[in-house]
Amino acid sequence: MFAKKTYVERRETLKKSLGKGLVILLGNSDAAINYAGNQYAFRQDSSFIYYLGLDAPDLAYVLDIDHNKEYLFGDELTIDDIIWMGNLPSLKERAEKVGISDVKPLSELASVVGAAVKSGQAVHYLKPYRFKNQLLISELLGKNPGQVQKDFSLELTKAIIKMRLIKSDEELAQLANAGQTGYAMHIVAMKMCHPGVSERDIAGVIEGLAISAGQGVSFPTILSMNGQTLHNHDHSETLKEGRLMLCDAGSENLEHYASDFTRTTAVGAKYNARQESVHNIVLRAVNESIAMAKPGIAYKNVHRNAYRIIFEGLREMGLTKGDTEAALEAGAPALFMPHGLGHAMGLDVHDMENLGETLVGYDDETQRDTMFGYASLRFGKRLEPGHVLTVEPGIYFVPQLIDKWKAEKICADFINFDRLQDFYDFGGIRLEDDIVITESGCRLVYEKRLPITIEEIWDAVNG
Prior knowledge:
463 residues
């Protein structure tokens, strides 16, 4: 938890940004795994953490801007809670640590919100992503649950996005802390990347590191020799010589800030010629993207430049052909990289995706593309100091996608489909770093870069 001043100032900024109305911020509740008493690890709502810092279930915050009042709603621990879950400071004591003096039982939330609705006061709430909160908003405002999803406050959503996108120095310190753990996770994964080791063993060990250092992983670990499947959470295979192991993993630290790195390692660090060639194309794409990222440049343009590097690199290998600009206009590189270059990161590994990916990553000036590949870019607008993003180009050979494009003659003027037959067993290579935009350019969020060249990876695996 940060100092009281941080949370007070954040709420004051939000109040000034909106100017009027009543804001409802709902915390999360415990969620059952397979019966009520067996629960998933609790994860508080990220915006609730950002403005309140209180990491406990069944809390609600109301900011009455018109009457300059704020309330925290929640219930004190019962003796049963203490017996089963342990004692905590009172809710009032915890509220005081974040600058809130008016604490009420959760049962009084309905009357406070109801009075605002009755008086005609504008009510702001975020689009709920958990059904329990969707039903609670429905009851509080007398709306159909389906209508609740449509009537969320766009004004509140945009105000929160604007604030949370710019990371403070204390947030950057937390992100670097998460990055330190993520670094350790990937070093261990590299050291274990030898023939005969199971993917499950590696995933289990590195996820244990994330638990020992913080809240656990920031997203389900992607670790597989079948890297052509972008979100491959299957860890059922055993590493084999001649294959590649793609590891996309990160940690969530004790303050809930995330890291997100990817490295692709040849098993035993023994790269064959085609693996080395593809790796070095992706390496050039990630390095040039980081060099290009600075205030004022649209990340959409950085993505396009990464596509250019990938297309031209594969052309040197004989896998693509034709004019680069024409190929970019046609979307040809998306056959090999069907995802975006990166996304915002912070309290969420895909920062504020629950508030609306397009609202976070685009604006009136920068519109989202609709073409395959380009459309998958989660963050495209102009970069500003304090933005934290991932940079994660990749090259993948997805047999089913290649077959589809070949049969439908998609981008046939730019793809040498017959030569791709030899790459159907390749898998994929992705390299990912986390950066923060500075006043003049960018830097790594965690200052120590993971091994990324083939020589560095060899030393990490075999050193």
